[in-house]
Amino acid sequence: MLEIPVDTNRDDSLPLSEIAAEITAIELETTDESLINPDYIVRIIITENNIIVVEENIIGTSRALVFNKDGEFVRSVGSRGQGPGEYNYLCNVAFDEQGKRLFFVSGNPTKIICYDLDGIFLKESRLNSNWVNRDINYINGELFLDCRLTFFQEGNDHIPVKKILYRMNENFQITDSCIRWENYWERNAHDSHFAGHCNYIVNNNTSIYIYSPEIYAKFVAPGIKVLRDTLYRLEDNCLVPELKLKFRNDGFDSAGDKIIDLSNIYRSSRYVFAMYEFNPNNKQRNTERPERYYFCYDTKTGKGYNMLDGFTDDINGIEKRVRIRPLHTDSEIFYYWHTNMKPGDLDEPNPTLYIVKLKK
Question: Which of 46, 82, 105, 272 has the most CB within a 10 Å radius?
Fold first, then answer.
């Protein structure tokens, strides 16, 4: 298993020109119906003719917006509600390229909803309401659903929790499952891995890569001294270790407190990417923001880059560092957002979508 050292004391500058074969910029049309908040974007889907942007906002309205390849707004898919074909908020979305179908995972009520690319509702299925932190992908004719299942018990202060990967058929029936980890949490505990990066099932055309998301141990399981630092490959419904990120002292300080909050690990054919928060002073969540780092490792050169708050876009001349994310259907393609204000703009326009094709 490849072991990759991560030096948290460094702040490198990695120009995108070093890892990008090409970058395509698409300005998304701004209308009253298509105004996007980039802080709420959980996923984009790129089809042959369209770009679908999915927003998750549990205190407002989640939406799936369809644009054409020129960035013109086409339609929204689905609507808010609790009836057939409606959702209260969206957790994630998968795309069937061959059948041209979208699969939404919604919350409250928890269900999978299927639409075609014209936004026509096809079918849906209710899920267990205890399934949370859901990610979904459609690969080789199967739905893969990753979720956390909590077993609430009256009078028990320590609650059994499992992270499970399910395989489903066309009728949303479970055909197989794989337990990724089991644990016991304190009652009223909560997650704190940072939102907006729920890409735990990523396809790179030859392999399916699985990452078990990091949970901040101080809040949910004080006795656990494990950093989830390993990316797995799914083979015959078994999780095979692919690579490991090696942090100093395995992510703990001298007092035994966890100081690394690892959100995700991805890989393409050449590069390994990760996102994590570095919290050496035990800053309290929701009051002080720990430092957020992006990490990139080039398997061809053996060189690693540790970057505070993102990558440097030297191609488009963006001054602020950018935060790239993988296309979950093809890990050779990444994307990021940046809002380009022009002279004369009275209101903030939709962000520009930048699509990055990685070098191999």
Answer: 105
